[in-house]
Write a structure and sequence with these properties.
15 helices, globular
């Protein structure tokens, strides 16, 4: 949490702009001289934060510290977002587990004085997870969700934490909370479909009829994801996998017989998903080595091999 979802190459590229960016944005003048300076913008300070995080991800702690100092000078030490960024810097600069434990103790001291400081609360969760204290992280996330029940990021993080422990029903419940907050989040619908499919694949004790029902629920989630974003490749790949799994269950007579016409519909869904995936792979301008495209190619190649 609080970390931008960017590739290492993007982070390095952004980090290389840190010093030129600082030079092009001189330190703000103090009041009352600041009244005579040009107006600042939200985008400007958002860029400071983005480049700061990129510097940390690329290992340029010196440039990150300069950016952090500028943010502190502008917004003050007590600003909650600045406190979260400072916490991020402390974690990145910590050289060993002992120093990370010291940072964690500092977070807990801050939380005693201000239990609603969400930036520090989220950093504490991230640090607990990095220290492999998963159960404590879950307790901390539950506490945050009690105070901020409409924070979708917290529910999504809690879902991931439960999923890591194989607690599928709890993880599913948390994703349902995310969808109450963001009902049109196609990636979350796809993730829900993925989670339902994983619960069938990992829990071999499911009766055939129950597995069939869960797979159809997964299919519904993937269809909703694609309805909201028809070129979402993870959703399309999931749709094809689940369609093929349902058809295999029917062929092996491990599921209820589908209503008339349903088998043909699922066959068509699988074929259309494969065609759409192939078109996206051939026309995408994204890096062909991105994980999603690699996985999509592997899925299509596997199906071709099985068809031979």
């Amino acid at each position: 949490m609080l970390l931008a979802h960017t590739s290492n190459a993007q982070s390095l590229q952004s980090a290389q702009t840190a010093l030129p960016f600082l030079n092009s944005h001189p330190q703000p003048k103090h009041f009352p001289l600041s009244l005579l300076a040009g107006g600042e913008t939200t985008e400007q300070w958002r860029s400071f934060e983005t480049i700061f995080v990129a510097c940390l991800k690329s290992g340029d702690d010196k440039a990150a510290h300069l950016l952090l100092e500028r943010l502190i000078e502008r917004f003050g030490q007590s600003n909650e977002r600045v406190m979260g960024l400072r916490a991020l810097y402390q974690e990145a600069a910590a050289g060993d587990t002992g120093k990370l434990e010291d940072v964690l103790s500092e977070y807990e001291s801050i939380m005693v004085n201000n239990p609603t400081n969400v930036s520090i609360a989220k950093r504490r969760v991230a640090l607990l997870k990095s220290l492999s204290r998963q159960t404590e992280a879950i307790k901390a996330l539950v506490a945050i969700s009690d105070v901020y029940p409409t924070d979708a990021e917290v529910w999504a993080e809690l879902s991931d934490s439960y999923l890591a422990l194989g607690m599928y029903s709890q993880a599913t419940y948390c994703l349902e909370e995310v969808l109450l907050i963001a009902p049109n989040a196609w990636n979350i619908h796809a993730k829900m479909g993925e989670m339902l499919y994983m619960s069938v694949a990992s829990e071999s004790g499911h009766p055939p009829n129950e597995a069939d029902k869960i797979l159809h629920a997964s299919l519904d989630r993937y269809c909703r994801s694609i309805e909201l974003c028809d070129n979402y490749i993870r959703g399309l790949c999931g749709l094809k996998i689940v369609c093929d799994e349902i058809l295999e269950l029917v062929i092996n007579s491990k599921a209820n017989q589908l209503p008339d016409g349903s088998i043909e519909q699922i066959h068509r869904l699988s074929s259309k998903a494969a065609l759409k995936i192939s078109n996206i792979i051939s026309t995408s301008s994204a890096d062909p080595e991105t994980p999603d495209l690699i996985a999509a190619k592997a899925l299509l190649n596997r199906k071709k091999e099985l068809a031979k």
